[in-house]
Amino acid sequence: MLSNKQILSVQKINALLPQPGRKKMSATICYYCRYINETEYSFCTNCGYPLHDNVLVSAYKKIIRERNTALFKAESSVLVARIVLYIMGAFLSLGIFFIFADGNQKYFIVLLAVLLSGLFFFLAFWSQKNPFTALLTAFVILIVFSAVNIFGKLEQSFTTIAGITGMSLCLALLFVVLKGVQGAYRINLIKQQMQLHI
Questions:
Q1: Which of 117, 119, 155, 187 has a beta carbon 3.0–4.6 Å from 92's, enabling a disulfide?
Q2: Residue range 42-101, pLDDT digits in tens
Q3: How would DSSP label each residue in 50-97?
Q4: Helix (H) or strand (E) holding 28
């Protein structure tokens, strides 16, 4: 136990020491992410949401709506491209029935159909985890096969109904997959922006 004299001595020493400033504690909770900010801040230090200005709040909400709309459109184009890849894989798997055809090249056709079917099924499945790379790979493969098909039978491609139909189908598939590639790229950009703000 300290004596009264010692207590007075400690109090005198304590009075001579610099006293820490007493700061008034006040906080504002962000409406968007529930992060606790100091009251004098104008924007949330976690997500950038305006804390006090209603005009800025409405502008921020508009940006979020536009971002969500762009994300939905991009995801829709990726989904359509993925479905097209699944359809192509299913269509090419029908090439297995060439095994019952006559001819020397039937085994080669069946093997090629099975390999291409598996490739497009794999790309469609892969596009769920990494849509940009998978769809870009599918686009390059489609360009190569379309070029081989069109330039291999150049005269028939432009003069016969089957050639024009085949060329139109190739162009339509390329367009759909290209839209999917663009959508996947936009998804990556939007997600990067969201990581910067959240």
A1: 117
A2: 888 887 788 887 888 888 888 888 988 999 999 999 999 999 999 999 998 887 776 777
A3: BSS-HHHHHHHHHHHHHHHHHHHHHHHHHHHHHHHHHHHHHHHHGGGG
A4: strand 27-29
